[in-house]
Specification:
The protein is an all-alpha fold. It has a two-stranded antiparallel sheet with strand order 1-2. Strand 1 and strand 2 form a beta hairpin.
Length: about 550
């Protein structure tokens, strides 16, 4: 239905609602910052005030110039473009911090700065992990989910201007979390360090994300809900549940940055690792499996190998994964039956995980030649291979006798990075390589040769990294369990640290190579965006119903 002049002059309701919300947030931030006696709380209050004022100014200018009007006949791709740019920016930042702290472990006499507390390893390590997981990975998940749900549902994103709130609200969460880490404002929970007020802000953003995603599915024109959307939905809903339970806390005061956990003792440990392992399972696995199920078939122009297997993969994965967390607490005060339960479900995860890996690889049936000709496909296939390897190694390490050797050692670090760099990194890179030409209306990437360089440099870096950590970790575990004839430990802790110096150097080199590949990719994408759009690509409407989105059993 055409938009009349009267309708066009009215400010959309979604814009008014967001404007009011941001205005209330600005007033609340001003009052909280003015009346708090806690310098840490005031520090973050300034960020909230600045973000609110900038948002209000941008919305005021936009409304005055007639912007923020949704065209229901076109997909909302602007927020996806912003998400792609944010993904690459935070990827470079997070990985650069990772290389820096690896250098601190390799050469502490050079990279240790006792007069600058914010450069301590203890503050930069969570900055690196959260930067790569939540800033790089989170932005990749949000922007790809917005692309996939629109194309597979044949519907514009729901909520009008609210997808932009999800994007910018999430960037504000990243900034608050990151500055909190370096300032020492954390609650010391692995993968969940931000304090209570930052968690509260993320809850608001995440609820908006869920409503936008569900609203788009609700108004879909395609009767079938494609399997990638099920994985995205599981990721969004389960992460919300994990976040709410794990971060349940009582603030010291409403204008204080510190808080006390709602749990204590072994119950606190169990909740933490129920959250921690399922953050891996649903944030770093389910969401990126959604990428695999959309972008691999699209890139190779083949249907999913078995749609039935993808459904079995989905339901078995989400039912089994949620029970696996206690395997992080072997040989602790947690009751042994709970430890055994976590180990058992972890071993059971082999089946659905490898079913999904096989489904992804077999989607290339009839298109294996693309491994030779298309480096983006090669990157995706290597990502799936790393997914298979990581989901074999994880259950293996959950076995009590293996865990007795591996826990607290660099073997765990190697395992995490084989999944984070090999699986999450490569499948995200592959998806972004696909998205940029589609979003900016280019018929190709600027340089396939640069993609080749990225692939081989990054792959070599991953191999160096994880093999160094395997050797270092097993050596550590063996040194820690070595005893003298008198029954005393044969090696002091500092001796184990000294023994793995070479492995730490190799890890630093491997991480630097992976970062170099990401920088090459960023340059390649920047040059791709600056290329003139081809006439054929520029004329493709944003409402195009793309081929190969229909599930094939």
């Amino acid at each position: 239905m055409p938009i009349t002049a009267a309708q066009d002059s009215e400010t959309p309701g979604d814009v008014v609602a967001l404007y009011l919300f941001v205005g209330v947030a600005a007033v609340a931030a001003l009052l909280a910052t003015a009346f708090t006696d806690d310098p840490a709380f005031r520090f973050h209050g300034y960020f909230m005030m600045a973000a609110s004022v900038v948002a209000l100014a941008a919305m005021t200018i936009g409304v005055a110039n007639g912007r923020f009007r949704s065209d229901p006949a076109r997909y909302e791709d602007g927020v996806i473009r912003a998400g792609v740019i944010a993904t690459m920016f935070w990827g470079v930042v997070g990985m650069a911090v990772g290389v820096f702290i690896a250098a601190q472990l390799s050469w502490p006499e050079i990279f240790y700065f006792p007069e600058h507390g914010w450069l301590n390893f203890g503050r930069l390590r969570p900055l690196h992990t959260s930067g790569v997981i939540f800033a790089f990975g989170g932005n990749a998940l949000i922007c790809t989910s917005f692309w996939v749900v629109q194309r597979t549902c044949k519907a514009r994103l729901a909520g009008g201007v609210w997808p932009w709130f999800v994007f910018w609200g999430y960037q504000l969460f990243i900034v608050l979390a990151a500055t909190g880490y370096v300032a020492g404002i954390t609650q010391s929970r692995e993968y969940a360090e931000p304090e209570w007020y930052v968690d509260l802000w993320l809850t608001i953003v995440w609820v908006a994300y869920l409503l936008v995603f569900l609203g788009t599915i609700w108004k879909r024109k395609e009767p079938h809900i494609y399997v990638a959307n099920w994985f995205y939905l599981a990721f969004i809903v389960t992460v919300a549940l994990l976040h709410l339970v794990n971060n349940a806390a009582v603030p010291v005061g409403l204008l204080e940055a510190r808080s006390y956990s709602a749990f204590g003792g072994v119950q606190d440990a169990l909740v933490q690792w129920w959250y921690g392992h399922n953050a891996v399972g649903f944030f770093l696995t389910a969401g990126f499996l959604a990428m695999m199920y959309y972008f691999v078939p699209k890139r190779v122009e083949r249907p999913v190998y078995s749609y039935r297997l993808s459904i079995v993969h989905f339901w078995s994965l989400i039912f089994i994964y949620i029970w696996a967390g206690p395997h992080h607490l072997h040989y602790t005060a947690l009751p042994q039956w709970a430890q055994t339960l976590g180990m058992t479900f972890s071993i059971m995860l082999w089946m659905p995980s490898w079913g999904g890996m096989i489904n992804g690889l077999m989607t290339l049936s009839g298109a294996w030649d693309k491994l030779r000709t298309d480096p983006v496909v090669r990157m995706m296939v290597v990502a799936i291979a790393f997914y298979g390897m990581s989901t074999f190694e994880g259950p293996l390490m959950s076995i009590r006798t293996v865990n007795a050797l591996s826990h607290y050692t660099d073997w765990t670090i190697g395992h995490v990075h084989s999944g984070a760099l090999g699986w999450v990194g490569f499948i995200s890179f592959g998806a972004v390589y696909c998205l940029v030409p589609w979003l900016w209306k280019k018929d190709r990437l600027y340089s396939n040769a640069l993609v080749e360089w990225h692939f081989w440099i990054a792959t070599t870096g991953i191999v160096l990294y994880i093999t160094a950590m395997w050797v270092s970790g097993i050596m550590e575990g063996l040194m820690w369990r070595e005893y003298t004839p008198d029954g005393f430990l044969a090696n002091s802790f500092i001796e184990t640290v000294s023994a793995k110096h070479i492995q730490n150097v190799i890890r630093t080199v491997g991480g630097l190579m992976f970062l170099s590949g990401t920088l090459i990719m960023s340059y390649n994408l920047w040059r791709t965006i600056r290329m003139p759009s081809s006439r054929s690509a520029a004329n493709v409407p944003a409402t195009l119903i793309e081929p190969h989105q229909q599930p094939v059993g």
